[in-house]
Amino acid sequence: GGYTQSPGGFGSPAGGQAEKKQRSRSQNIVPCTVSQLLAAEQVDETFRICDVEISQVGTGADPREARETIPPHPPLPPQVTVVGIVRHAEKAPTNILYKVDDMTAAPMDVRQWVDTDEAGGENVVIPPGTYVKVAGHLRSFQNKKSLVAFKIMPLENMNEFTTHILEIVNAHMILRKNLMSASKVPQSFSSTGINDMGGYGGGGSLPLNGLTAHQSQVLNLIKSCHVPEGMSLQDLKQQLPSMSMSTIKQAVEFLSSEGHIYSTVDDDHYKSTDAE
User: Fold this and answer.
1) In terms of DSSP bridges, do strands 131-141 and 80-91 run parallel, antiparallel, or are they unpaired?
2) What span, in angstroms and rounded, lies between the C-alpha atoms of 99 and 270?
3) Which residues pair with 141 in a beta bridge?
4) Strand partners, 188
5) What integer best gives the mean pLDDT of the chain?
6) In b/e form, how buried is each residue of 34-62, taking b as 16+ CB within 10 angstroms?
7) Domain with 220 in it
8) Helical ranges in 40-122 per DSSP H
9) pLDDT tens digit string along 104-145?
10) Which of 191, 214, 249, 274 has CA 20 to 30 A from 58's CA?
11) What residue spans carry the Gly residues bias annotation (predicted)?
12) What confidence category does residue 224 fall into, taking pLDDT thresholds of 50, 70 and 90?
């Protein structure tokens, strides 16, 4: 909470404090289904799923009116991601309106603002029938929920769709567990460190593409090792002094069981299955 917003649902760039809060929210990217977003409960100035804050509420004037009075800058950092198929696309001078369907509910309106001064990739309309991943924040106007998209990317293959569904299940299972252990005290997703669509900020204890931060660190180090026998547990410990050996072993055991790495000369040396 505490993030200031203009009536149109855009973040107010009012001074250093607001900028700091905006940056602190940029890592909060939560995989969701359309049905979850439509069912999200509005509590004060936030949307919540199972008592967990997923987005600030954008209310009041239509953003097209707000754009005339607010200095141009990007919308709020992405708060949620959805994956679905574009059913309809309609281009206007300042925005593109999509209807995105993930088959969990009726297609959802997704609006992407375009820079009228630049002929960039954001100005290209993605045709209906294309599967896309949308990162944006939830808003409500006249009691109708929609997404304001920060980024819309066509899927490279359908594995991304499957991965997104698994990330939804995993993230919300962990959040429900965290809420129970915290005696159901309402919390923000920022405290749990959800991260997705790499490049939007740091991760916490929640999985990134199915891996926790510790597992990702271990896997990246093993991938970077090009000696024939691979990387040893002792090498990993030297490279990760802040991580306990038991945590490293647990990560290695998980990565091995999931097929990311394999043992070489003995049970202490591992190579990545992606290694050439």
Assistant:
1) antiparallel
2) 46
3) 144
4) 53
5) 72
6) bebbbebeeeeebbbbeebbbbbbbbebe
7) 211-276
8) 63-66
9) 899 999 999 887 666 665 678 999 999 999 988 888 888 888
10) 191
11) 1-14
12) confident
